[in-house]
Write a structure and sequence with these properties.
The protein has about 400 residues and is of the alpha+beta class. It has 14 helices and 10 strands. It has 2 domains: about 1-45; about 55-340, no CATH class. Helices cover about 40% and strands about 15% of the residues. It binds 2-acetamido-2-deoxy-beta-D-glucopyranose (NAG) (4 copies). One 2-acetamido-2-deoxy-beta-D-glucopyranose binds next to loops. Keywords: Membrane, Transmembrane, Transmembrane helix. InterPro entries: HODM_asu-like.
Length: about 400
């Protein structure tokens, strides 16, 4: 009917072409709608068994609909009274491995009575250093905001006296700070929020088509011995090579690459390391590294430790997670920082620490700056270990419950 009417307006020779056009029109529209549907579906989070990310081509993560478990409140949390967890992450034997440990998702982020100290120092550094310490590249924007959404789900449940979920973001009930990062007026880097909320520094790594992970978003304010600007927008292997991480090629590279590719959103892993610092600046070890702005290499300063009292034990807890939607990997880096003399009052610590240091290979000795403090630290540890042994704290009695 319609075709006949149409035929009256056009000349007869064209009629067959019109017919052809009209008959393929439905086919075209089906193709277009199914293409659009496919495109839409490929953005929609899928259950893991449908996303099949284990078989992905590197750099092509499909969003998963996984929800990270909602944690119970941290037991008896009190911002004034809750002490930092006493990680003493060293063993009698020392070996460079990834040293990772699966951990319960409830334990993702730790807040304690040091929060204000970390927070205030970070706020100061964010204001002073700006993009030198914190930035998000365009390819990491989605991941960075996804991370904020994860914080918004986790923190108010874990620390309800401290954080509150609000319609457009998250509020800090202790300071009154409001982070309405979901507002259309939000104009700050998403990492600004992470820098203010938690004690940890944050690094987001995105997977590229050659399988490498690139540091594309982060806020690093309290690293102590490295600068954000020197590592930002480099890959995981470049970071380790440039830092001369001992045994990276032989012990770490292969297993790390495999581990990263296979990591799933269900996993939370942590790793710990430790070293010593000759001053008590949490943000930058100025006494051994010199002025932060003019810094070029590790351990360039000439200062050697003078007394045991000035030496700080610096231990890091890194957590790693894969974000389900973007597929980016998030590192949180939390530093625990206290006088060496203080931890040496704890049972079994001096001997275990001494053994651990005595087992460092030569590369680690350089990497960790042994020469700067060994003449002060090693005799002190020997003396304390002996004292404790005399009191009955012998190695045989030690219960090894890593990382304590
Ligand atoms: C990040 O590094 C890549 C690879 O070296 C380079 O192509 C890109 O321009 C860099 N991006 C920025 C913002 O520096
Ligand atoms: C250290 O770890 C590497 C890699 O896991 C392993 O090959 C080596 O045997 C280990 N060495 C010791 C002394 O345990
Ligand atoms: C721990 O390891 C990271 C690299 O993963 C390094 O940047 C950091 O300086 C180390 N921290 C300590 C306290 O040794
Ligand atoms: C760092 O370098 C700048 C320029 O080279 C110089 O003006 C400044 O005095 C140096 N700062 C320190 C603390 O060495």
């Amino acid at each position: 009917m319609f075709i006949q009417e149409l035929g009256q307006f056009i000349d007869l020779q064209n009629k067959s072409q019109i017919l052809l056009l009209l008959s393929i029109f439905p086919i075209i529209s089906i193709l277009v709608t199914s293409y659009l549907k496919f495109f839409h579906d490929s953005k929609k989070p899928l259950p893991a068994h449908k996303a099949k990310n284990k078989q992905r081509k590197p750099g092509h993560w499909k969003p998963e609909d996984y929800k990270f478990p909602i944690p119970p409140p941290y037991p008896n949390f009190d911002l004034k009274k809750t002490d930092p967890i006493p990680y003493r992450a060293f063993k009698h034997k020392f070996n460079i491995t990834m040293g990772i440990k699966n951990t319960h998702p409830h334990d993702w982020l730790e807040i304690d009575n040091q929060w204000y100290k970390y927070h205030d120092l970070k706020v100061k550094r964010v204001a002073e250093k700006g993009e030198k310490n914190m930035k998000t590249l365009p390819q990491s924007q989605d991941a960075a905001f996804e991370l904020l959404d994860e914080f918004r789900e986790y923190l108010p449940e874990r620390y309800p006296s401290m954080f509150k979920k609000i319609p457009l973001g998250i509020e800090n009930l202790q300071t009154g700070e409001i982070f309405d990062y979901k507002s259309p007026n939000w104009d700050k880097d998403p990492m600004y929020v992470t820098a203010h909320l938690i004690q940890d520094d944050v690094a987001i790594m995105t997977e590229e088509e050659d399988g490498q992970y690139r540091f594309t978003s982060g806020s690093i304010q309290l690293a102590g011995s490295w600068r954000f600007r020197d590592k930002f927008n480099t890959t995981l292997s470049e970071i380790h090579y440039n830092a001369n991480v001992p045994k990276y090629e032989s012990n770490l590279k292969k297993s790390m690459e495999k581990f990263f590719f296979n990591m799933t959103p269900e996993q939370l892993v942590v790793r710990y390391n430790y070293s010593f610092q000759m001053d008590d600046n949490l943000d930058w070890a100025v006494s051994t590294l010199g002025d932060e702005e003019n810094h070029t290499y590790r351990f360039t300063g000439s200062l050697k430790a003078q007394t045991i009292d000035g030496i700080m034990y610096r231990s890091e807890r890194q957590s790693l997670r894969r974000l389900p939607k973007s597929g980016a990997i998030v590192f949180t880096i939390r530093t625990y920082f206290l006088p060496l003399t203080q931890i040496c009052q704890e049972p079994f610590v001096p001997k275990r620490l001494l053994n651990s240091i005595n087992n460092w290979d030569p590369d680690s000795q350089v990497y960790k700056g042994l020469i700067k403090w060994k003449d002060i630290v090693l005799p002190y540890l020997e003396e304390k270990a002996k004292e404790q042994e005399d009191q009955g704290y012998t190695v045989e009695k030690e219960k090894l419950n890593f990382p304590f």
